[in-house]
Amino acid sequence: MHLSSSADMHSKHLPMSRTSDALYELQTTLGHSFVRIELLIEALTHSSALNEWRGNHSHNERLEFLGDSVLDLLISEYLMSEFQEVDEGILSKMKARLVGKDTLAALSRSLSLGSYLFLGRGEELNDGRQNPSILADTLEAVIAAVYLDGGLSSARRLVLNVYREKFNLLNSNGQKTDDKSQLQELCQRRFGFLPVYHLSHTSGPDHHRTFEVEVHLGNDQYGAGAGRTKKKAEQEAAKQALVRLQEIQA
C-alpha cells in the first residue's frame, strides 16, 4: 500500500486522513504501536517531499543518523552475546555485513517500507520506492523512531525480529560458536569444571580411519560421537551432551 502518491503530494498537505490505515498496518508489521505517531511519519518522509508540503514537517535524515548508531549498538550486543568465542576481528566483519547498505535495503524490502514512503514527485517518477539507498536509510530512521518512542528495549525487539533470518543464516553457515565450545562454556558456568573427552575406539585402515569418542562430565558419560577425525567425533559427542543437558534442565 502506498502511503502517499504524487497525487497526494499535489495537495501540498500531509494526507493524514488517507494514511491512518496504512500507518496502523505498518505498526502491526513492526510490532510497535507508536505513542508519538509523528516520529513514524518523520521516519518515512524523504527530503524530496518537503518541497511539496505546506507546514512545519521534518524529513528522516536526522533519524537516519541516530538509527545508524542504535542499530550498530544492538547488532554488536547480539554478536557479543551469541558468539562469545569469536575474536574482535571476525565480529567486526560479521557486523559490517549485517549493517551494510545492501542488507539494510533487503530488510527494508521485506518490511515493504518503500510502499509507505512519503516522496516528492521527482523521486516518485525516478522509482525512489525501490532505490536501495533510500530504503536502507528509511529502515535506519524507523529504528531510531522506535527507539525514541519506546526506548532501547523496543528498538531491540524490532531489530531482533527484523534480523531473525539473517541471524539464522549466520548459524547455518557455521559462524556460530561450535558445539564443543558451547559445551565447555556451559560446563564452566554451570558446574565449574570442563568436559573430558576419551577416545574409546578406532577402526578402519590408516587412510580411512573412524574415531569414536565419549565425553564425560564428572563421572558420567553424557555423549558419544564418531567421525573421520577426532575433532569431528568430539564435536558430535559434544552435540549429544548439549542435547542431554537441555533435556535435564527442561
Description of the molecule:
The structure is a single chain. By secondary structure, the chain is mainly alpha-helical. The chain has 2 domains: 6-172, Ribonuclease iii, N-terminal Endonuclease Domain, Chain A, CATH 1.10.1520.10; 179-249, Double Stranded RNA Binding Domain, CATH 3.30.160.20. It is 58% helix and 10% strand. The protein has helices at 6-9, 16-30, 37-43, 61-82, 88-99, 101-110, 121-125, 132-150, 152-162, 164-172, 179-190, 230-249; strands at residues 196-203, 210-217, 220-227. Strands 1-2-3 form a 3-stranded antiparallel beta sheet, with helices on one face.
Q: Count the DSSP helices.
A: 12
Can you tell me the CATH architecture of the largest domain? Orthogonal Bundle
Order of helices and strands: HHHHHHHHHHHEEEH
Give the CATH class of the largest domain.
Answer: Mainly Alpha
Shape: elongated
Strand content: 5-15%
Instruction: Say which CATH homologous superfamily of the largest domain is assigned.
Output: Ribonuclease III domain
The average pLDDT is: 85
Domain module tally = 2
CATH topology of the largest domain: Ribonuclease iii, N-terminal Endonuclease Domain, Chain A
End-to-end separation in angstroms reads: 45 Å
Largest sheet: 3 strands, antiparallel
The counted number of beta strands is 3
